[in-house]
Structure formats: structure tokens, C-alpha cells
């Protein structure tokens, strides 16, 4: 099974920046699209960004476009989420996910990490 591990979460002031990282613990020949989702306490999981491993296509939710950037390093089997101009409403647990194609739908992803907490204070 594919296992994903997120890192890089923490506490930052509004207007600050963080970079989240996600990697697979098992090397395979599969070529997965990757996504980032987030979930605040008591709320539904929300799409943030997605990227394909080949072709460089990306998609973002409107609330983060222009502030967040998703990127990848295929040699390291890593995907990143660079977050800038952070707002208190960005506070959530952020999850990395892997699936067969680029999609904003969580149901299209097959593998999930355990999440990393991001807290933005005013």
C-alpha cells in the first residue's frame, strides 16, 4: 500500500508563510496525481490544490489562489504546498492525498496521509 507522510505545519502569524511537504514512504513505479485538502474542527474536508506528476497541470480553490503554490520534485517523490499571506481562516489540519488524475474531488483520491496542523493567529 502507498503511505503518505506530511510535515511542515506549525503556528504562524497572519500574513506569514509556511511550506508543507508530503512524501511517500514506499517507492513504486506508479505515477500519481497529488492533492492537498484541509479540514477545520467540526467542518467538512475542503479541497485546496492538486498537481499532476507529468504535464505540470494544477488547480486551486478560489480562496487560496494567488497565495498558495503547489509544486513537486519527482526525483525525491515529494510534493509541496507553499503558503503565503496566511489568514486565520486558513487554520486547519492539512492532508496530502494521491490519486490517478488531477481532481478537486476527495473521492477521486485513493491514499491519504495523517495530516499536519496549521494554525494562523491574528
Distance between the termini: 40 Å
Average of per-residue pLDDT values: 92
How many H/I helical runs? Answer: 0
What structural class results from the helix and strand content? mainly beta
The description of the largest β-sheet is:
7 strands, mixed
Number of beta-strand segments: 11
Cα-based radius of gyration, to the nearest Å: 13 Å
The outline comes out as: globular
What proportion of the residues is helical, as a percent range? under 10%
* Strand residues, percent: over 45%
Q: List segments where confidence is low: pLDDT < 50 over at least 5 consecutive residues.
A: none
Summarize this structure as a short list of keywords or feature phrases:
mainly beta, single chain, 122 residues, seven-stranded mixed β-sheet
What would you say this structure looks like, in words?
This protein is mainly β. Helix content is 0%, strand content 48%. The protein is globular, with a radius of gyration of 13 Å.
Task: Chart the SSEs and their pairings.
Elements: E1 4-7, E2 10-13, E3 18-24, E4 33-39, E5 46-51, E6 58-60, E7 68-73, E8 78-83, E9 92-99, E10 111-112, E11 116-121
Parallel strand pairs: 2-11
Antiparallel strand pairs: 1-3, 3-8, 4-5, 4-9, 5-6, 7-8, 9-10, 9-11
Amino acid at each position: 500500500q502507498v503511505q503518505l507522510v506530511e510535515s511542515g505545519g506549525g503556528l504562524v502569524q497572519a500574513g506569514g508563510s509556511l511550506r508543507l511537504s508530503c512524501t511517500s514512504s514506499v517507492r513504486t513505479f506508479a505515477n500519481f496525481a497529488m492533492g492537498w485538502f484541509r479540514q477545520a474542527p467540526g467542518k467538512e474536508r475542503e479541497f485546496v490544490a492538486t498537481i499532476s506528476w507529468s504535464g505540470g497541470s494544477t488547480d486551486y480553490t478560489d480562496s487560496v489562489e494567488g497565495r498558495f503554490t503547489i509544486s513537486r520534485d519527482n526525483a525525491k517523490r515529494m510534493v509541496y504546498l507553499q503558503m503565503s499571506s496566511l489568514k486565520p481562516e486558513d487554520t486547519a489540519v492539512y492532508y496530502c492525498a494521491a490519486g490517478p488524475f488531477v481532481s478537486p474531488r476527495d473521492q477521486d483520491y485513493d491514499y491519504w496521509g495523517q495530516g499536519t496542523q496549521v494554525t494562523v493567529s491574528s
